[in-house]
Automatic annotation (TrEMBL):
Superkingdom of this protein's organism: Archaea
Cofactor: Zn(2+)
Gene3D superfamilies assigned to the protein according to its UniProt record, in alphabetical order: Medium-chain alcohol dehydrogenases, catalytic domain, NAD(P)-binding Rossmann-like Domain
Record's keyword annotation contains Glycosyltransferase: no
SUPFAM superfamilies cross-referenced by the UniProt entry: GroES-like (SSF50129), NAD(P)-binding Rossmann-fold domains (SSF51735)
InterPro entries linked to this entry: ADH-like_C, GroES-like_sf, NAD(P)-bd_dom_sf
Molecular-function annotations in GO: metal ion binding; oxidoreductase activity
Record's signal peptide: none
Occurrences of domain Alcohol dehydrogenase-like C-terminal (ranges): 159-278
Protein name: Alcohol dehydrogenase-like C-terminal domain-containing protein
This protein's UniProt keywords: Metal-binding, Oxidoreductase, Zinc
UniProt family annotation: Belongs to the zinc-containing alcohol dehydrogenase family.
Length: 337
């Protein structure tokens, strides 16, 4: 039996390899992938090689718990069906639609502990959004938006759009967003933003004239992946406001002024990362409960409209090049097997 596997072989270099795999044995199963989602944030940092030395690729995904070094497989949003099972696995797993935090490849052998059965009524294309929605939920839990607050969202990629949608369900005074790309801004307003502004050097005047009160935002999310945006977030956030940083900047260095604006306004900078739940919630929340909530949003949101591009795995180079060079036209790209 053979499979196609995607390898990151160097900065801005990917290759698809044909590999031989054995049938599942013992407590293992064979999953044939249907879709896997490409992350335009973290995954693109790995594609570009913009990762600090000695970084563990991903501590939460089996097979990726190793230091960043080429070549390696990557990806963490795969949806497929169980086609074969080992002798120690119940036949009930056969043909079950499952999600896995697994790299991009056409089929793979794994244990059922690494699979999440997809609830009925959810299609394969929708299920690939599970990690992104889980991340958006975590951003809300870390930011703790309050009734009547003015919220600023900087960055409307997939994570930003989904976070905007979740915020729209809350009784806030306003949700103002920004992004460089028109397609994202239009989708942002469709998903609940009161106003979405083109991100540019003088964007502050637009925020204060048309969107935010003169006192600034109560809560700001920085999800652009651009470390320079953090300084603008500091200027636009009001007295004793919170700034939640959902971006991973990789090895990119940036000078950020933590002077008068930051100091006198007593701002709070909050790092948000989905692999951990805020310890303050640990008595009531765990990974399983957060995933259950994420599935509810997967079921109830119109997610397929966010998929703008589908590629075969053999078109991987074309896919990553498009995401890197021309994000104006793209929201979510997926591999279809």
């Amino acid at each position: 039996m053979k499979r196609l596997s995607l390898y990151f072989s160097g900065p801005e270099e990917v290759e698809v390899r044909e590999e031989k795999i054995e049938p599942p044995r013992g407590d293992s199963v064979l999953v044939e992938n249907e879709f896997s989602a490409i992350s335009s944030g973290t995954e693109m940092l790995f594609y570009l090689g913009r990762i600090e030395e000695d970084t563990i690729i991903d501590k939460g995904i089996g097979g990726l718990e190793k230091k960043f070094d080429y070549p390696f497989k990557y990806g963490y949003s795969s949806v497929g069906k169980v086609k074969e099972v080992g002798k120690e696995v119940s036949e009930e797993w056969k043909n079950k639609l499952v999600f896995s935090f697994h790299p991009h490849e056409s089929r793979f052998i794994t244990k059922t502990d690494n699979l999440i059965p997809i609830p009925s009524g959810i299609e394969s294309e929708e299920a690939v959004f599970l990690p992104s929605i889980e991340t958006a939920i975590n951003l809300l839990m870390d930011g703790r938006p309050l009734i009547g607050e003015n919220v600023l969202m900087m960055g409307q990629g997939i994570i930003g759009l989904l976070t905007t949608s979740l915020l729209n369900e809350m009784p806030l005074s306003s949700i103002v967003t920004s992004d460089r790309h028109q397609l994202r801004r239009e989708m942002s307003e469709e998903m609940g933003a009161e106003l979405s502004i083109k991100a540019e050097k003088n964007e502050e005047e637009f925020y204060l004239d048309d969107g935010l009160p003169d006192s600034g935002a109560d809560l700001t999310y920085e999800i652009t992946g651009n470390s320079d945006t953090l300084e603008r977030a500091i200027r636009l956030t009001g007295l004793e406001g919170r700034i939640v940083i959902g971006s991973w900047y990789g090895d990119i260095n940036s000078e950020i002024k933590l002077g008068t604006q930051f100091h006198r306004k007593r701002l709070k900078l909050i790092s948000s990362q989905v692999s951990r739940i805020n310890p303050e919630y640990s008595g009531r929340w765990d990974k399983e409960r957060r995933l259950d909530l994420a599935w509810e949003y997967v079921r109830n949101m119109d997610l397929r409209k966010l998929i703008t591009h589908e590629f075969s795995l053999k078109e991987a180079k074309k896919a990553y090049n498009l995401i890197e060079k021309d994000r104006r036209k793209i929201l979510q790209a997926v591999f279809k097997y």
